[in-house]
Amino acid sequence: PTGEFAFGELIPGSVTVAVNAAGFRPLALPVEIGGQGVTRVEAALRSGALVRGTVRAGSARGPLADAR
Question: Domain range for residue 51?
Answer without folding.
Answer: 13-63
